[in-house]
Amino acid sequence: MSAKTLVLGASTNPDRYAYLAVQQLRKNNIEVVAVGQKPGLVDDVPIHTTAEVFDDIDTVTLYLNPERQKAYYDYILSLHPRRVIFNPGTENPEFYNILSESQISSEVACTLVLLSTRQF
Questions:
Q1: Residue 89 needs a FRET pair 20 to 30 A away by CA distance; which of 10, 64, 101, 107 works?
Q2: pTM
Q3: Could you read off the pLDDT of 37-88 as tens digits, one per residue?
Q4: Residue 62 and residue 92: Cα distance in Å, rounded?
């Protein structure tokens, strides 16, 4: 399996991009953990409703608007990911700067596109 990815803003709604991201990450043999507002499952991936401490997170892919991200700044920093992906609608220059100061890469991109073009 590839490096572990946290989907932050996960959803059990199949119409949401966060749901599709969990599915596509799994289909690409990437280990996935998920945190969202409501508990549930996306295929075999449980959605946690609290900021769980996960080991070895390589990538955090965000599906939260910038205002909702603020509550997770310290949490994301504590995971020491290699990178954070800001999906469309999640762009947040304030957080880019915080990540940069912590030597964490940020990328404005679509996880689904990165996966489909094998650039993830």
A1: 101
A2: 0.96
A3: 999 999 999 999 999 999 999 999 999 999 999 999 999 999 999 999 999 9
A4: 11
Confirm if 59 and 31 have CB atoms less than 8 A apart.
no
- Beta-bridged to residue 35, according to DSSP, are 8, 48
57-62 sheet: strands from edge to edge: 40-42, 45-48, 30-36, 2-10, 57-62, 83-86, 105-108
The burial class, CB within 10 Å (0-12 / 13-18 / 19+), for 61 is buried
Of 86, 38, 82, which is closest to residue 59 (Cα–Cα)?
Answer: 82
* Structural element, H or E, at residue 14: none
d(CA 48, CA 29): 20
Look at strands 83-86 and 105-108 and give their pairing: parallel
Please choose, from the candidates 61, 76, 77, 50, the residue with its C-alpha nearest in 3D space to the C-alpha of residue 6: 61
pLDDT of 2 above 70: no
